[in-house]
Amino acid sequence: MEQTLRLRDAFPEFVLPGLGIHPVNVFSMSPQEWERAFSFLKSHAHEASCIGEIGLDFKYATTEKEQEKQRKALHVQMEVAADNHLPINLHSRRALRQTMEEAIAFHRNTGLPALLHWFAHSEKLLRRTNREGIFVSVGPSILFSEEALNLAYTIDPQLILVETDTPVPFKGKPASPAWVGEVAERLIANYPQNQLTSSKLYGNTQRFLQKA
To answer: What is the domain partition of the chain in residue ranges?
Structure first.
């Protein structure tokens, strides 16, 4: 998180910092490391544009004890977001429904925006997020998969965002933030009934960040 803020300081016109403790990192931290990181988050949350990437990751949390540890870490970070009136950005690998329910509860209880990052895996769940007003982002997978692109069409055009998930590799090549334009262009060009435009994507981002 310190590096994120240093990057923001170096490029303030380009970087809006998200601060949070990733669910995978919850396992690698000693109790002392967790307390230090969580204390930093609480102390510097006012400098953030959102809290995240936080969430659940049941690829690594396979036992109930491990999953409960992730839930507790998620909940206290959501409290930080609520206390600072900040949106949240959620990770949901192999915990799609559970993370979606957390996003919905947060949004209902606080009125603050919640984003499910790279969540476009289930049309049924996306219909639920649409009803509940939860933002969903899509990334470079739509550049390489027609199935991913078609599923992205399920997302309400008022709730869709774009991302790159840098530096996750696609087709053996690490993603880059520069790819976001290509992702947006592919999405807009194929969105049904021309309901999506670059200005709408920008407006969605502004609303998620509470700058609209």
So the answer is: 2-208
